[in-house]
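Our preliminary data section would be incomplete without showing what the modeling component actually yields. Below, a chain of 178 amino acids is followed by its predicted structure, encoded as tokens that our downstream tools consume directly.
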Amino acid sequence: MITGNTFFGAPWSATLKVMTTFSVVILAGVAVLFATVVPRHLLGGVPFTLTMLIVLTTVFGAVLFIVRGYEVGAGNLLIRRLLWSTVLSLSELQEAWSDPTAMARSLRLFGNGGLFVFAGLFWNRKLGKYRVFATLPRNAVVLKFPQRAVVVTPDRPGQFLEAIALSCPHASVRRSAP
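Predicted structure:
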């Protein structure tokens, strides 16, 4: 039985690891190319500086939004980031279930699609528009609220759902998709 606040890790999928590595290598390649190969007098100071700022901002900005884990307790879900937590009130939670295919065939409307995390606003036919804080899509847990759905990917989906059930006795919690 789970009591109090419970922490769940956010393991990375192989896809996320490959996408992150590929993206960082490409961005680092652009930075190295501009810093060493392209003569600065051809670029001028402003384009060179702007390019380097864009590359660095992209990588370090994305790192800040990493999902390190999830914490359930006291009627809230805390999505642990690198330097802060995103707090999601569970007071209006209607349903919660595990669905390894929840993110399948999704269209990213706004957010990050694989540089350290899958996060932002997505859409698919199954869930409609939903918000995601994910690192391992096959561990997807869907949290259904009156006006929205949220997808998270804790390391232990079954135990995560148990913690949600204890924190939100008013919600319908089940192990698999409806």
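The radius of gyration is 19 Å. The first strand starts at residue 6 and ends at 9. Preliminary results of this kind motivate Aim 1 of the renewal.
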